[in-house]
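Give me the fold.
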Amino acid sequence: MKNGRIQKGVSRGKPFEIEVDGEKILAYEGETIAASLLAAGKRTCRQTKLTKEPRGIYCGMGVCMGCAMIVNGRPNTLVCQTMATPNCKVQTQIGIGNWETPK
């Protein structure tokens, strides 16, 4: 697992794993899913419906909808505003118009 976090001078909660598109990544108590994704080197949260272009974390405060993902089966979850929890399952979302889930 990649860990792109600052290590020196930072105090974190307990570590645990979350699953992103079938891959386990490291997260910590008190960390958003978006922070976990970025630390793991994952930049794509969703894809556009027609051209499948990647979209990622943009504003980081729940306004732009760029970080909409499927979390524990629930589409349209803004991962910049959602805390990581042990064993949560996160999936890349396709499209935003109809809030489709991948099949």
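The first strand starts at residue 15 and ends at 20.
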